[in-house]
TrEMBL record:
Pfam families: Acyltransferase
GO molecular function: acyltransferase activity
Keywords annotated in UniProt: Acyltransferase, Transferase
Organism: Nocardia tengchongensis
Domain Phospholipid/glycerol acyltransferase: from-to ranges: 63-199
Protein name per the record: 1-acyl-sn-glycerol-3-phosphate acyltransferase
Keyword Isomerase assigned: no
Amino acid sequence: MEPPEVTLENCDAVYDYYRDHRQNLVKAKAAYWLLGRRFKPRVGFAAGARKGLRDFISAGRPLIISINHLSERDPYTVSAAAWRSPLRPVIGHTRVLAKHEVFADPTLRSTLDMMGGMPVFRSKDHESSSVNAASERLIDTCAVVMARGDSIALFPEGTCNTVDHTRVLDLGGGIGHIACRARELGADPVLVSLGLSYGPRPDPAAELGKADVLSASFYFGMPVGELPAQPADITSMARDELQAALDGAVAGY
């Protein structure tokens, strides 16, 4: 199946494609390995988190990996951290949600597809009621792939934090709806919170260069295998868990 053009008007074809898309495992693992060598992240864990994560992955539980968002370079450093963590077995089986604009360049899109990228049409980028329909299709698609055993990684703040890199912004409601809809299809998702820090930043609005994101500090909170029943409660839990993980990443820098 040929990759469809990633536009809001074409969202049905887009999500039909990414629902069934499969990564090249060899290329994906090689790319994550290379990023791990290039960015050399430091990875810490809450007490019991490393074992808990390994146990959930061994049990085949799909993960919802929640990460705070600081820079346009985050997808690369997060991929590097995944290679250097217990997430390595789910590389090639994880869909990474990314804003749809980055899929416009054919060369970059090829890389994104190989890395597990899935486009998101954000309401901040469109003033159309069609965004609501696209969001529903995205949630449905995430639920289907999780029911098939794949995991989802996302930046639930929905935008880069240019206010205070030590505090998590309010989360969008998508993370809670994805978890609930996946459960409706028989999945049993696990919430994994991954805090990210690039160190002290006098101007949090300034974009970071390649040298600025080397040796980033990552911190895994204890994975949560029992999630609340309602989407809003899951979202609230996700924010609290992500803040605790971010606190760990800041302290470990």
